Amino acid sequence: MTMEKRIRSLTALILAGMVLALAAGFMAGKKQTFSENENRYLAGFPHFTWERAVSGAYMEDWSSYLADQFPFRDFFVGAKTGMEYALGKREINQVFFAGDGYLIEEYAAPVNTDRIAAALHNFAEELESLQLEPRLMLVPTAYHVYREKLPAHVSWRDQMETAQTLYDASGMVPIDCSRALLTCEEEGLYYKTDHHWTSRGAFQGYLKWCEANGMYLPASQFHPVQVSDSFQGSLDSRVLEAEGSRDSIELFTREQEPSYTVSYNFGREISDSVYAPENLKKKDQYQIFLNGNHPEVTIETSNKNGKRLLIVKDSFANTLVPFLIGDCESIHLIDLRYYRGSLEDYISQREINEFLILYNLKNFCGEKNLKFY
Q: pTM here?
C-alpha cells in the first residue's frame, strides 16, 4: 500500500471514529431540558403522531431535538464563532461585533407597522372608555443609540422613524426617551453582552416619565451600587465568545424610599424586594430585576397618593420599575407573552388610574399579542 493510500485510509478511520464517538456520546449522554447559556428550554424527544408525520412537523421536531441535544454543542458554537471572527466576519447569528467590546443585535425594519398602529389605536379607544389616558414608551435598542460603534459596513436603519409613526397613529401620549439616550454623555446605557438597557439607561427613561407627569426629581436622590462584574448576557449566548466582555450590573438605591411588598402571579410568591440577588448565580443575571419575567406582578407601597399604575411590558420595564416605587401607591405589571386573562377586568378590579405600555421597539414590532383583549 502506497503512502498516499495509507494517509487516506487513516483519515477515513479518524473521521469514522469521530462520527461514531459523537453518535455514542449523543446516545449515551444525559439530555438537557434547559440551557443556561441560551436561557431557554431545549427540544425534547419528538412525540410521534400520524398527523405530525404527514404534515412534516415530526421531522422538524427531530431536527430541533438533534440540534439542541448535540454533544458539546456550546463548545462547537464557540469554536465556530472564533473561526468566523478570525476570518474577518463581524456579524454572527444576527449579532454585530461592535466597537468598545459591544455585541449589538441586528435590527430589520418591521413590515407590519400599519397593523401594529391600528391595534394600538383601537386599544387606546378601549382605554378611553375606561377613563384612562394611555401612555406609550418605545425604547430604542443599542443598535440605534450606539450607531457609531457598529461595524463600518452596516447599513443603518433609524428605529425612531418607526416609533414616531406608531406614536402618531396610536392616539396615546408618547413618552419618547430616544433623544435622552442619544444625548446622554454617560457610558454604559446598554449592556455590552446583553440586549437590555442597564439601570443607567432605564434612568433616562424614568426621567422622561417624570417629565411627562410634571415631576422634578433631582438625580442626586439615586445612588448606584454595583452587585456584579461578571454578567454575560443574551447576545453572548448567541456567539459564546471565549474571550468576550463581562458586564457590571448596578442597582440604584433611592433616598427615603417607601416600604413595599412584591406579589408575583396573583400572590403565589411574595417578596419584600424588587431585586432577587440569588439570580446572580445564574447565567442570566438580568433576572435580578423583578426575579425575571412573570405573567403578573403587583407592588404595593406605603405611599398614599392614589396613583395605581398598570404597565403592559416586556423585560425592558424590569429595570425601570425600581425607580417608580417612590412615586406610586401601587404598580401592576402585565406581560402579554404569558398573561391570559382579561385586561379590562384587571383594570376594573384594581381601580387602575394610570396606564403605560413600555417595550423596546424591536420586541414590540415582533409582538404577536397586540389585540390586548
A: 0.81
